[in-house]
Amino acid sequence: MGTSGADTDREIVRGFALALDREDYAAAEAALAPSCVYLLRGERIEGAGAIVASYKGNGDAARAFDEIAYGSSVRDGDDGRVVIEFWDELVHRGRRHRHVCEQWVRVEGGAIVAIEHRDLAGEAEALAAFRAWCFGP
Q1: Beta carbons within 10 angstroms of residue 74's beta carbon
Q2: Burial bucket for residue 1 (CB in 10 Å: 0-12, 13-18, 19+)
Q3: What residue ranges define each of the domains in the chain, with the CATH number in brackets?
Q4: Is residue 4 very low, low, confident or very high in pLDDT (cuts 50, 70, 90)?
Q5: Which pTM was predicted?
Q6: Distance between CA atoms of residues 127 and 34, nearest Å
Q7: Average pLDDT over the chain, rounded to whole?
Q8: Tens digit of pLDDT for each residue in 36-70?
Q9: Cα dihedral across residues 14, 84, 109, 33: positive or negative
Q10: CA-CA-CA-CA torsion sign (124, 129, 135, 137)
């Protein structure tokens, strides 16, 4: 549990997830500590602005699909972290794909200080295959 208490940590993380679901990047950035660190597939992104820019870049890229809807849920993780399960419902040329990932989040002092992206087994490969079907290799 972070220094702000488990219930408060979950509320902070839930607000962050909902902000990303609706692409409200200002609200998402407000939940992050200025020195927050985001670990994403071997890359280390530092600072609230850079982290939000990364999320926005993914959101902008998703506009290539005919339809996209975002959703999320939040649960307690281990070691005091809160886990966000994000899902993207993608539709392109009549074909559907649901992509799911997790982000393990640490809150301290009322702000998110660390995010670790975790791809679930087979998800990154399935998304790559769907993108290849939609747009070519």
Answers
A1: 21
A2: middle
A3: 6-135 (3.10.450.50)
A4: low
A5: 0.91
A6: 31
A7: 94
A8: 999 999 999 999 999 999 999 888 777 899 999 99
A9: negative
A10: positive
